[in-house]
Amino acid sequence: MQRPQDDVYFTRRNEPFGGYQVGGDMGHFCYFCGELKSNEAFSGKGHRRHLCRACNSIPAAEREESELWGRLHDLMDQSNISKKNIVWLKSLLEHSNQLIRAHAQLILHVAEVAPFRKKRYQRISVFSTKLLERCIDAGLLYPPDSEWGADPSSDEDPEENNEPF
Q1: What pLDDT digit, counting tens, does each position of 77-120 carry?
Q2: Residue 94 and residue 97: Cα distance in Å, rounded?
Q3: Would you state the pLDDT for residue 165?
Q4: E strands, the chain, where?
Q5: Sequence-distant (≥ 6) Cβ neighbours of residue 112 within 8 angstroms
Q6: Are strands 36-37 and 28-29 parallel, antiparallel or unpaired?
Q7: Of residues 32, 31, 28, the one with CA closest to residue 41
Q8: Is residue 92 within a helix (H) or strand (E), and if so which, with residue range?
Q9: What's the pLDDT at 148?
Q10: Statement: residue 12 has pLDDT above 50
């Protein structure tokens, strides 16, 4: 028995993924809201820009500012805050939004102290606890776990009290 030439074809109901072959047309991903939506949820302009109709109706200035916040927070996850990123951050120091200017200044300071992601948290904490607190308050870094920095000679074993699933 030959199957149709499409990418998607119906299979048995008891197979995973609802009876459809994986890899077919499954709609589009909206980059703004982060949802996978049907083809009908996108207008002609939205298809190309990967914006659904609901997100496309949001004012452009608000969308751009939200994307800017996302880019700022993503810098802390990059393996290296590069020279291009530093130039971009310096250009944000003249932004009209005061919070964006403050975040850009804070990330520039982090880039001076620890431009590489490996051990960034530890380097910032050694360099300046005030900078670490400012990063945590701004939401750029998360507070350390209770086991982080614990004395290895302590009597308690953190894995000792854990119950199995």
Answers
A1: 888 889 999 999 999 999 998 999 999 999 999 888 888 888 88
A2: 9
A3: 45
A4: 28-29, 36-37
A5: none
A6: antiparallel
A7: 28
A8: helix 83-92
A9: 53
A10: no
Report the C-alpha gap between 118 and 23 in whole angstroms. 36
Residues 11 and 5 sit within 8 Å (Cβ to Cβ): no
- What b/e string do you get for 69-93 counting C-beta neighbours within 10 Å, with b at 16 or more? eeebeebbeeeebeeebbeebeebe
Distance of alpha carbon 131 from alpha carbon 69, whole angstroms: 20
For tokens 């990418």, name the residue: 7
Residue position matching structure tokens 């993503």: 74
The encoded tokens of residue 93 equal 């120091």
Chain position carrying tokens 């992601």: 117
pLDDT per residue over 18-46, tens digit each? 444 455 556 778 888 888 888 788 877 65
Q: Which two tokens stand for residue 102?
A: 């403050």
